[in-house]
Design goal:
Elements: H1 2-7, E1 9-14, H2 18-29, H3 31-38, E2 42-48, E3 65-66, H4 69-73, E4 80-83, H5 90-100, E5 104-107, H6 110-127, E6 131-132, H7 143-150, E7 156-162, H8 165-177, H9 181-190, H10 199-202, H11 205-219, E8 229-230, H12 238-246, E9 249-260, E10 263-274, E11 286-293, E12 297-304, H13 308-328, E13 356-366, H14 371-381, E14 386-391, E15 399-406, E16 409-410, H15 411-422, E17 432-436
Parallel strand pairs: 1-2, 1-4, 2-3, 4-5, 5-6, 8-10, 10-17
Antiparallel strand pairs: 7-9, 7-11, 9-10, 11-12, 13-15, 13-16, 13-17, 14-15
Helix pairs in contact: 2-13, 5-6, 6-11, 8-9, 14-15
The structure holds L-homoserine.
């Protein structure tokens, strides 16, 4: 304790990529300011990266740089490790080893936490160190702190998040410039938002990792990735997004979690949300999260969900917490997942088939008498009530788009109805479905 106050907090950084470099810069740029807030200096004792070029241009002397991450993790003079390697290979081994060595770990690695959370928590419990991961969800937005601390007095009822900047950037370009998905993805790559392999982003996988962490923190339940329904954005067309706008909606890749009776529902998919909803105005690579608590009502966080300095900002926030705890001897004052271990119990996760919401359905139908009655018949037979129908234009030959909005309906009924509709001779292509998130006041 006294040692930290006098000598400062020795931090070991594993991985000097974009965020790692941001951390080196931020700790140098705001050194005094952070010290004034924390009560002791934070200093990078060692920085590891296997690529020596990673250190270029950084204010690091040769004693700080190494290619050997393990030597940092095993160094008894370094109590806090920042893991910014990413992925689930070496990062996992090093994190488990650091925790096993009793160190406090700060990480931005949502994939690792969402996939191996149980093992990681167990290693932290056994080792006695702490685990911080503010940078894992929503970049600089204080999502973890808000759920873990600020809203501790609330029963969380729901959360709705735009948690992937790449997808939000792509959807914004389709919305405002009528680009195809492929062109918008290329623009995202050119702008440096999307990775060379953007699969994890556009498939919704990255958002699912982040939602898994939010669900555990919000509801005090462990959740497996397999419990979270996920659908990506690559099938969305400019037409669907334009039709959505005509009905007063924007399309966002939303992470949704809600209490439903005794269960929790958790899902990630493209979602139509009303224009008046604040989230519909979150454009470009920005992230946002609406949290709904029984006492606070709605709280909306908005900010940069990725990038060098915003993510480094979240890492420094965790380092400040780690240092303050060490200075006060207030070790594990806040449980890692925000709940006392004995009070974390698995809640039932609502199967996707049981989810009830409203739907947008687009059909490619032949423009003939009786088509609508056939479609409406199938929907009616499956207990689905239509709230509006629009035929978009008239073609002499070939199919026309028919767009339907439904009242609240059950997912399993919708899926069954869509299969039956797709099999009708008058339907020319697979129906397109987008879920709507809005109170159904007209049901
Ligand atoms: N690739 C993510 C995004 C950032 O586009 O938001 C890291 O999770």
């Amino acid at each position: 304790m006294g040692k930290v106050k006098e000598q400062g907090l020795a931090v070991g950084l594993l991985g000097c990529g974009t965020v790692g470099r941001g951390l080196v810069k931020l700790l140098s740029q705001n050194r005094q300011l952070v010290q004034a807030r924390v009560g002791a200096p934070l200093f990078l004792a060692k920085v590891a990266d296997t690529n020596p070029a990673a250190f270029e241009g950084l204010e690091l002397d040769s004693s700080q740089k190494t290619g050997d991450a393990l030597s940092i993790v095993d160094d008894p003079r370094i109590p806090v490790i920042v893991e910014l390697i990413g992925g689930q290979g070496v990062a996992k081994d090093l994190m488990l080893r650091a925790l096993g060595n009793g160190k406090t770990v700060v990480t931005a690695n949502k994939a690792l936490l969402a996939t191996w959370g149980r093992d990681i928590l167990e290693a932290a419990r056994k080792g006695g160190g702490e685990l911080f991961f503010e940078a894992a969800v929503g970049g600089c937005m204080p999502v973890i702190k808000t759920l873990r601390e600020t809203l501790a007095g609330n029963r969380i009822l729901a959360l709705y998040g735009i948690l992937n900047g790449t997808c939000n950037y792509i959807l914004s370009r389709i919305t405002f410039e009528n680009l195809s998905f492929e062109d918008a993805l290329q623009k995202a790559q050119e702008a440096g938002f999307a990775e060379a392999d953007p699969f994890l982003d556009i498939s919704g996988g990255d958002t699912r990792h982040k939602l898994a962490l939010c669900v555990s923190l919000a509801f005090g339940t462990p959740v497996g990735l397999e419990d979270i329904f996920v659908e990506g954005i690559s099938h969305l067309t400019p037409d669907d997004i334009a039709f959505a706008q005509e009905f007063g909606y924007r399309v966002k890749l939303l992470a949704i979690a809600k209490r439903t009776g005794n269960a929790v529902q958790a899902r990630v998919h493209p979602t139509m949300i009303p224009m008046y909803n604040m989230l519909s105005n979150v454009s470009g690579p920005m992230n946002a999260l609406t949290l709904v608590g029984d006492a606070c009502g709605e709280v909306v966080l908005y900010g940069q969900g990725a990038g060098m300095m915003p993510t480094a900002s979240a890492v420094v926030s965790d380092l400040a917490d780690a240092a303050r705890n060490l200075l006060c001897g207030a070790h594990n004052r806040i449980p890692i997942m925000g709940w006392q271990e004995r009070d974390i119990s698995p809640l039932p996760i609502l199967p996707m088939d049981e989810v009830v919401t409203r739907y947008y359905i687009r059909l490619a139908a032949l423009d003939r008498p009786g088509v609508l009655s056939k479609v409406a018949g199938v929907l009616g037979d499956n207990g689905i009530s239509i709230s509006s129908v629009h035929q978009k234009g008239r073609h002499i030959e070939g199919p026309v788009p028919i767009v339907l909005l439904t009242h609240d309906a059950k997912e399993s009924n919708i899926q069954k109805a869509l299969k039956e509709i797709a099999a009708l001779a008058v339907i020319a292509a697979d129906p397109v479905l987008i879920r709507i998130e809005e109170e159904d006041e007209t049901a």
